[in-house]
Amino acid sequence: xxxxxxxxxxxxxxxxxxxxxxxxxxxxxxxxxxxxxxxxxxxxxxxxxxxxxxxxxxxxxxxxxxxxxxxxxxxxxxxxxxxxxxxxxxxxxxxxxxxxxxxxxxxxxxxxxxxxxxxxxxxxxxxxxxxxxxxxxxxxxxxxxxxxxxxxxxxxxxxxxxxxxxxxxxxxxxxxxxxxxxxxxxxxxxx
Length: 191
Known about the structure:
The chain is of the alpha+beta class. It is 49% helix and 11% strand.
């Protein structure tokens, strides 16, 4: 069960791991300054550039928009809210291994979405996931699980979520978690 404070928004803040005092120390944005170069590329989608620039300036991802997608891709609930840690009365933190897991899932999705182009929608996400699952073990069981998850994301009228991401935007999102994993940073779920 995810925290109740969804309406306030969720930031995923890069922090030093492990904490050395009562609070986690944020990572200096300089660790992400190279993300800013993406924002300056002339052919980059506006949402991609905005995400990259925000990461470069703050060392933070405004994660609210990505929570449903990441939960679907990784097969759990509240991933970016770090609800598993919170349920264990721990701080809502994604450790470096968790960051690597998130990054890996996003990277595989971005690669699998290449043949569908740069626009990521609910329908293209479903197709990428169906393709990936069909090639694995226990495909029939996992496809049933996927169809149930997809149905649960639809509203009462049967309408799909209005997801519209640039594939490059999700590559930048993956890059944030990969940077945290590679440099031994954690991510604090601030909401």
